[in-house]
Design brief:
432 residues, alpha+beta, six-stranded antiparallel sheet, two-stranded antiparallel ribbon, 8 strands, globular
Length: 432
């Protein structure tokens, strides 16, 4: 519902969100929007409506989402698709936990948040002045797209690239691409506007699909645009940009958040199922079987690799944004005693200077079950200290591993404390 053609993964016999350990539909979500609504109900916060964009500006301010994160999508891949055209694209804004979508003349503001316990949770806010605005949680309608085969069967967000015609309609017969930080730039941003510099690299953004038998894009015409004035009137929007750095960050973030949800779901279900079995077999409370440990490892290992940017597609030229988003993102920290941060950007060869995801500081990561987080911390130490030199981590130099370890030790207290805790039973790296 939020990002264009953003979907989730399912494909299992039973939806994970229905498991007794999860109960996605029944559980009340504790997230930035639900907390904002409580403040509104108590009269401590009021949203402001304006003629230009309704509640959009006020929602962004309350959720602390920077305007510079704006990304514009012109493909008709949202539930408000009838209002979306290349001349009236959908605007998306985000921070570490919240995403907001706005369409010109749309009846609602769309919001998706990363709930620490439930994963992606979806809301709409009616664009009506007066009265008492209220965020309405959406479930079944949104989950039709956001709980599919592309996100491992958990509620979440992903980004896709399509061949979009001059009217914004996707040309699905030409194919689509699931977009992550592992995607080559040549497959990214079809149906999106992109501003900023990227040198000799080419993408699918700012271009319209043409041709009948063979669908083609003019990638040159849409490359390295400093502004969108030749493509549309940007005056209805909060900024005239659709920043390339924001796009790069969002692609990394949505994938890791889906894997965070998958790890949380998988670990909680494994522990719940084992507790049931322990009661039936009259085993001690807290008994951990090899099977349960294996289930937890199987959902945490993909998350670990994503957080350490395994198989990240390299940048072959420098990238520069032009909305101020890069500076805003990097300034958030936290910083270690040498003023280093996991938010420092590289943008010459890869996204981050120190390839370890800043999402380790989020509520969603902190809310992982203790067993899952302990396993992740132990595996992080094994990789960062060089104990694990498996090929998948060969992109990390000795100096980079050392720097990441020092940054985490300085800025993540429970990670620092985990060094003195008993080791979690793991398989040797060679067995993976």
């Amino acid at each position: 519902m939020l990002l264009p053609a953003l979907c989730l993964a399912g494909g299992q016999e039973r939806d994970d969100f229905d498991h007794p350990a999860i109960q996605y539909i029944k559980q009340t979500s504790d997230d930035p929007v639900s907390r904002l609504q409580k403040e509104m109900d108590a009269g401590r916060v009021r949203l402001t409506f304006n003629r230009k964009n309704g509640y959009l500006s006020s929602v962004l301010a309350q959720l602390k989402i920077p305007v510079s994160s704006q990304m514009l999508v012109f493909s008709k891949t949202s539930f408000q698709r009838d209002l979306i055209t290349p001349h009236a694209p959908r605007a998306l804004y985000f921070n570490d936990s919240s995403y907001v979508g706005w369409v010109q003349d749309g009846s609602v503001v769309e919001v998706a948040v990363q709930s620490p316990q439930l994963g992606a949770v979806f809301y709409t806010l009616q664009q009506e002045s007066g009265g008492r605005p209220r965020f309405q949680r959406q479930t079944y309608e949104c989950l039709q797209c956001h709980n599919s085969s592309m996100t491992a069967g958990v509620p979440g967000l992903i980004m896709r690239s399509v061949y979009a015609r001059i009217d914004g309609m996707p040309e699905f017969r030409a194919g689509t691409y699931l977009t992550t930080d592992q995607s080559p730039l040549s497959e990214r941003w079809g149906g999106w506007y992109v501003t900023g510099q990227h040198g000799v690299m080419r993408h699918m953004g700012n271009a319209f699909a043409r041709g009948e038998e063979n669908v083609i894009l003019d990638r040159e015409k849409g490359a390295n645009l400093k502004s969108l004035h030749s493509l549309l009137d940007t005056s209805p929007y909060l900024t005239p940009q659709s920043d390339i750095v924001a796009l790069l960050v969002a692609e990394h973030q949505t994938r890791v958040q889906t894997l965070l949800t998958k790890a949380g779901y998988g670990a909680r279900m494994a522990l719940y199922d084992e507790a049931q079995l322990n009661r039936e077999l009259q085993r001690p409370v807290g008994y951990r079987s090899d099977s349960t440990r294996s289930r937890i490892r199987s959902v945490c290992d993909p998350l670990l690799e994503a957080m350490l940017f395994v198989k990240e597609a390299p940048l072959t030229d420098a990238v520069t944004g032009n909305s101020g988003y890069a500076e805003t993102f990097a300034a958030q920290g936290p910083f270690d005693h040498q003023h280093r941060s996991l938010r420092q950007l590289d943008l010459h060869h890869r996204l981050l200077r120190y390839p370890c995801s800043y999402l380790i500081y989020t509520e969603a990561f902190d809310a992982l079950p203790t067993e899952a987080k302990s396993y992740l911390y132990q595996r992080l130490r094994e990789v960062l200290t060089g104990k694990d030199n498996s090929p998948e981590f060969s992109h990390l130099s000795t100096a980079e591993r050392k720097a990441i370890l020092e940054i985490l030790t300085d800025t993540k207290p429970d990670f620092a404390a985990s060094d003195s805790k008993p080791a979690v039973k793991t398989d040797p790296p060679s067995a993976k």
